[in-house]
Design a protein that fits this description.
The protein has about 300 residues and is of the alpha+beta class. The chain has 7 helices and 17 strands. It has 2 domains: about 120 residues, Aminotransferase class 4, branched-chain amino acid transferase, N-terminal domain (D-amino Acid Aminotransferase, Chain A, domain 1, 2-Layer Sandwich), CATH 3.30.470; about 160 residues, D-amino Acid Aminotransferase, Chain A, domain 2, CATH 3.20.10.10. The longest helix is centred in the first third of the chain and has 15 residues. Bound molecules: 4'-deoxy-4'-aminopyridoxal-5'-phosphate. The site of 4'-deoxy-4'-aminopyridoxal-5'-phosphate has 15 residues, from helix 5.
C-alpha cells in the first residue's frame, strides 16, 4: 500500500498537498531534525503496534532543543497525531513513521535563530533495511564520524546524515553490506545509521554515548532486555578497532535495521562466522515484543487500531 496522507501544517492532508518550496531553509541548509519509528503488523491480532512511540518523540524534543527548533506540539500530542495518521492510512503491514521538524522559512541566511519552524509526519510501508540480517558483511569505513563539537551526532539532524550517506555508499561500492565508522580519535562509534554491540567474554560491549553515536532507542531497549531476560550485562566503554576482529559476536541495532548480525568485519569472520547465540536470543525477544506478542512488555508498544481496520 502506498502513502496517502501526511500530517502537515497543522492537519492531516492528502500526501500530494504536503509540499515545501525549494526556498525552504531546511532544504537549503539541512536545518531539520527527524525521527524514524517502526510499527509492526500482527496478523493474528489484526493490529499494528508502534514500538517505543513516546521515546522517539522525547528524542525529537532533545534534537530540536540542540538546533533551536520550537516544536508546536507536546510529546503526547505528537503521539496522538501519529496514531491518528496511521489509523487513517489503514496499513496492514510493517510500517515506518517519519516525523520531521524543520526550519520552514523561505529565504537565505545560514543561522538557526529567528526562523519559523515546521512539523510534519508521514508513514510508509517498510520491510528490511539490510538484506542479510542474519549475517552482514561489514567494513570499517575510511570516513570518520561527525564530532559533537562540529555536528552533534546526539541530535538526529537531517543535514548530518550526509556523513551516514558517505559511509553507506562507500561501503556498498566497496562490496560490503554496511560499515562501522570510527570517531575522530579512532574509537569505534557505530554503523552508518545504527548502533553496534559486540560480545566479549559473555558480556555485551557497546560504545558509550560520548563516542559520537546517536543515543539509540533500540540500543537502550537491548541493554534492558539483555539484563532482565538473559541476565547478560552490557559494558559501555570505548571500543578499539581490533576488538571487532576478536569479538565472539557483533551486531547492529536500530529502528530501521532492527537487529542485524554481522558475519564478517574487514574480511575476518566474527566468531564462527555464523549468527551467534546472544544475538539470536535478542532478535527473537525483540521481534516478539515489537509484534505485541508479549503481554509483559505491552507498555513498549502502542496499538493503532481501536477497531479492526477496513481491508
Ligand atoms: N545511529 C544512527 C546514526 C541512526 O541513524 C540510528 C537510527 N535512528 C541509530 C543509531 C539507531 O537509533 P534507534 O535505535 O533509536 O533507531
Amino acid at each position: 500500500m502506498a502513502t496517502k496522507y501526511a500530517f502537515f501544517e497543522g492537519s492531516i492532508v492528502p500526501i500530494e498537498e504536503a509540499k515545501v518550496s525549494i526556498m525552504t531553509h531546511a532544504f537549503n541548509y539541512g536545518t531539520g531534525c527527524f525521527e524514524g519509528i517502526r510499527a509492526y503488523w500482527n496478523e493474528t491480532k489484526e493490529q499494528l503496534y508502534v514500538l517505543k512511540l513516546r521515546e522517539h518523540y522525547e528524542r525529537l524534543v532533545h534534537s530540536c532543543k540542540i538546533i533551536l527548533i520550537t516544536l508546536p506540539y507536546s510529546v503526547d500530542e505528537m503521539c496522538s497525531m501519529t496514531l491518528e495518521l496511521l489509523s487513517k492510512e489503514g496499513f496492514r503491514e510493517d510500517t515506518y513513521v517519519r516525523p520531521l521538524a524543520y526550519k520552514a522559512e523561505s529565504g537565505l541566511g545560514v543561522r538557526l535563530h529567528d526562523l519559523r519552524d515546521g512539523f510534519a509526519i508521514f508513514a510508509t510501508p517498510f520491510g528490511k533495511y539490510i538484506d542479510k540480517e542474519e549475517g552482514a558483511n561489514v567494513g570499517v569505513s575510511s570516513w570518520r564520524r561527525i564530532n559533537d563539537n562540529s555536528v552533534p551526532a546526539r541530535a538526529k539532524i537531517t543535514g548530518a546524515y550526509i556523513n551516514s550517506a558517505l559511509i553507506k555508499t562507500d561501503a556498498i561500492m566497496n562490496g560490503f553490506d554496511e560499515a562501522i565508522v570510527l570517531t575522530q580519535e579512532g574509537h569505534v562509534s557505530e554503523g552508518s545509521a545504527e548502533n553496534l554491540f559486540i560480545v566479549r567474554e559473555g558480556k555485551l560491549v557497546t560504545s558509550p554515548v560520548t563516542e559520537d553515536i546517536l543515543e539509540g532507542i533500540t540500543r537502550a531497549t537491548l541493554i534492558a532486555l539483555a539484563a532482565t531476560e538473559l541476565g547478560i550485562e552490557t559494558v559501555e566503554r570505548p571500543i578499539d578497532r581490533t576488538e571487532l576482529y576478536v569479538a565472539d559476536e557483533a551486531f547492529f541495532c536500530g529502528t530501521g535495521v532492527q537487529i542485524a548480525a554481522i558475519a564478517e568485519i574487514d574480511h575476518r569472520p566474527v566468531g564462527t562466522g555464523k549468527i551467534g547465540p546472544i544475538v539470536t536470543q535478542l532478535r527473537d525477544l525483540y521481534f516478539s515484543i515489537a509484534r505485541g506478542e508479549r503481554e509483559d512488555y505491552s507498555r513498549w508498544v502502542t496499538p493503532v487500531y481501536t477497531a479492526v481496520p477496513a481491508g
